[in-house]
């Protein structure tokens, strides 16, 4: 069986699902560098798999971005395997890419998206062009916007696979938008008593997520909606912002397989980040048939929002508030809900591998000549 080694920083649930889908066709080993992620709860990370081998590189310190020299041994000792680097930015991946380049070894780089920085470092831009344009043999890209970004840094467009990045499986997509009555069933299950429209936000309370904009926007809404913020302990700033309002609710960390109930109970999902390399929560919300709103700094929105929600200008609370009202209007909400389900059918784990497989098979055929 042809072998694939996926080099990644840590094993996120969606990364493991992708590797396990690949494992239906290949012998897959997930190689990772660290056990923690400062942006996520440790319970969210995955370290076991029934179908993939798991290998931890040497990293004695809990570093944000460790440099693991034994990645070279992985590449050197598996000459017939396809090496897939999960991103080109981590130090260990850069070391591996440089080694592959020096040895004339093919390297496929998976790119989920790109940071939408307001201020760019000239030095960082220079290095990025060298890495993307010179070190990487080929890419799997999350969507058209990501492909354009890679090309702008020197990547050959003929060497980029667009695989429609996702964190959901075909079976997880609802076959219909949930009615008000169906949503109430899930609300009772979650202990939510509200009969008003529910706006949902999901993610850690980090400054880059800009949840303060969402809170302030909901306060300005004409629709008497409730806002549920899911994903951790709110900071003092968020508690202060919500003080005096019965419409703002905070929910602590919930495991991935429980989050879908909150999507099913909601009427609209909003991601107001000031930068987000993709935003998989958009995929997850759309899979449950609800409209989505995101800032123009969320890369995934450029591929996922098309008649099923709105993209607003980052930081613009007034525009966000108007968009929320628009998406909660009953006729708009029903139409956008159906559109979300239409779009998301192309963005699944199975479809990712379906698009990648011809390229991977061609690589192994060429290796065996």
Task: Give a structural overview.
- The chain is of the alpha/beta class.
- The protein has two domains: 3-166 and 348-367, Glycogen Phosphorylase B (Rossmann fold, 3-Layer(aba) Sandwich); 170-344, Rossmann fold (3-Layer(aba) Sandwich).
- The chain is built from 14 helices and 13 strands.
- The protein has helices at residues 13-22, 71-76, 91-103, 122-135, 144-152, 180-190, 211-220, 236-242, 256-265, 280-287, 301-304, 317-328, 330-344, 349-367, and strands at residues 3-8, 27-32, 53-56, 82-86, 108-111, 138-141, 160-162, 198-202, 226-230, 248-251, 268-271, 292-295, 309-312.
- The chain has a seven-stranded parallel beta sheet with strand order 3-2-1-4-5-6-7, sandwiched between helices. A six-stranded parallel beta sheet has the order 10-9-8-11-12-13, with helices on both faces.
- It is globular and about 65 Å long.
- The two termini are 16 Å apart.
- The mean pLDDT is 92.
Features:
alpha/beta, 13 strands, 7-stranded parallel beta sheet, 6-stranded parallel beta sheet, 369 residues, Rossmann fold, single chain
Topology (elements, then pairings):
Blueprint: E1 3-8, H1 13-22, E2 27-32, E3 53-56, H2 71-76, E4 82-86, H3 91-103, E5 108-111, H4 122-135, E6 138-141, H5 144-152, E7 160-162, H6 180-190, E8 198-202, H7 211-220, E9 226-230, H8 236-242, E10 248-251, H9 256-265, E11 268-271, H10 280-287, E12 292-295, H11 301-304, E13 309-312, H12 317-328, H13 330-344, H14 349-367
Parallel strand pairs: 1-2, 1-4, 2-3, 4-5, 5-6, 6-7, 8-9, 8-11, 9-10, 11-12, 12-13
């Amino acid at each position: 069986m042809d072998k694939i080694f996926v080099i990644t920083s840590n094993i996120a649930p969606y990364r493991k699902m992708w590797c396990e889908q690949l494992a239906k066709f290949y012998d897959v080993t997930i190689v990772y560098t660290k056990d923690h992620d400062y942006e996520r709860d440790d319970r969210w990370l995955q370290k076991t798999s029934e179908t993939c081998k798991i290998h931890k590189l040497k990293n004695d310190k809990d570093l944000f971005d460790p440099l693991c020299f034994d990645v070279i041994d992985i590449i050197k000792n598996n000459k017939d395997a396809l090496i897939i680097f999960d991103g080109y930015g981590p130090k260990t991946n850069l070391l591996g890419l440089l080694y592959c380049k020096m040895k004339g070894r093919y390297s496929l780089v998976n790119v989920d998206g790109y940071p939408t920085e307001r201020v760019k470092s000239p030095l960082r831009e220079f290095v990025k062009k060298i890495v993307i344009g010179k070190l990487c043999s080929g890419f799997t890209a999350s969507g058209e916007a990501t492909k354009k970004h890679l090309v702008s840094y020197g990547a050959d467009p003929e060497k980029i696979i667009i695989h429609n990045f996702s964190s959901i499986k075909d079976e997880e997509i609802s076959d219909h938008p949930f009615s008000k009555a169906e949503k109430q069933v899930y609300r009772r299950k979650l202990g939510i008593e509200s009969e008003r429209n529910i706006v949902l936000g999901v993610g850690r309370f980090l400054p880059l997520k800009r949840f303060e904009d969402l809170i302030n926007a909901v306060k300005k809404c004409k629709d008497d909606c409730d806002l549920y913020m899911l994903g951790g302990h709110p900071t003092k700033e968020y508690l202060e912002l919500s003080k005096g309002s019965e419409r703002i609710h905070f929910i602590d960390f919930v495991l991935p397989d429980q989050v879908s109930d909150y999507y099913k109970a909601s009427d609209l999902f909003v991601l107001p980040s000031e930068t987000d390399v993709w935003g998989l929560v958009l995929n997850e919300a759309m899979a449950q048939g609800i409209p989505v709103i995101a800032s123009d700094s969320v890369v995934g929105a450029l591929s996922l929002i098309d008649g099923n929600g709105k993209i607003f200008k980052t930081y613009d609370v007034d525009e966000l508030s108007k968009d929320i009202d628009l998406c909660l209007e009953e006729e708009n909400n029903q139409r956008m809900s159906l559109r979300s389900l239409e779009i998301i059918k192309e963005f699944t784990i199975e479809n990712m591998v379906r698009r990648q497989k011809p390229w991977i098979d061609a690589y192994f055929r060429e290796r065996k000549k």
